[in-house]
TrEMBL record:
SUPFAM superfamilies: PRTase-like. This is ComF family protein. Belongs to the ComF/GntX family. The lineage of its organism: Bacteria, Bacillati, Actinomycetota, Actinomycetes, Kitasatosporales. InterPro entries: ComF/GntX_DNA_util-trans, PRTase-like, PRTase_dom.
């Protein structure tokens, strides 16, 4: 029931720009440009956790981008899923350009976007699964540009984890170590050698993405890269193409 009310509120509530507060705009042109107006880039946390695949991000986690992500995830700004999904799609395409080692447009089968899972309690508290919602929007954007993408929400948390926000890099890595697993039958979705791109809204230390990559690999999946909407600003200074 709560999710239904959240959906309704996202459609009918008066809107101001989630990034800067400009009236009569879900996300103003300036904030859209901040979100996805630049070419997505490879980003690297410092230190890089073991097992982290190449990660690409469309924006820095600051200013209007930070406000928009928080508004979507924590405040029920559901209309933001489309622009956030478009930004995530840009990061997926950057992750799969030929210069990155593989070509997102060179696969005959579907490209599988695998969201990093959230705790059930967090999803219940928010009234929606923000990660899956944005992944679905990204898949729609990719299909619109000719990339046969689909979402495979097959990762699960096998044990409780703490809220990551108060933990440093070492604490985050320990918190999620061994916490994820692929659902039974996931291997039938991605198939032998099928391309998997991990997706999330944000990368700070990379611990969750590294754990997600481990879980996919253990489940016989092949992780080609990871893509996020935004990354911590310092991660942009550590990128190496």
């Amino acid at each position: 029931m709560r999710g239904w009310w959240r959906e309704l509120a996202g459609l009918v509530a008066p809107v101001d720009c989630a990034g800067c507060g400009l009236p009569r705009s879900v996300l103003c042109e300036g904030c859209r440009g901040e979100l996805g107006g630049r070419r997505a880039r490879r980003v690297r946390p410092d230190p890089v956790p073991p097992g982290l695949p190449r990660v690409y991000a469309s924006a820095r986690y600051e200013g209007g981008v930070r406000s928009a992500l928080i508004a979507h995830k924590e405040r029920g700004g559901l209309a933001l899923a489309e622009p956030l999904g478009a930004a995530l799609a840009g990061a997926v395409e950057a992750a799969g350009r030929p210069g990155a080692g593989w070509d997102v447009r060179g696969w005959s089968g579907p490209l599988l976007l695998v969201p990093v899972p959230s705790a059930r309690s967090a999803v219940a508290g928010r009234g929606h699964d923000a990660g899956r919602r944005v992944a679905l929007a990204a898949a729609r954007a990719l299909r619109g540009s000719g990339v046969p993408a689909r979402v495979a929400a097959v990762l699960r948390l096998r044990r409780p984890v703490l809220d990551q926000s108060g933990l440093d890099a070492r604490g985050r890595a320990a918190n999620v170590a061994g916490a994820m697993e692929a659902a039974r039958g996931a291997e039938r979705l991605w198939g032998p050698g099928g391309p998997v791109v991990l997706v999330d809204d944000l990368m700070t230390t990379g611990a969750s993405l590294a754990e997600a990559a481990r879980a996919v690999t253990v489940g016989d999946g092949r992780v080609m890269a990871a893509a996020v909407i935004a990354a911590a600003p310092r991660a942009f200074g550590n990128n190496r193409n």
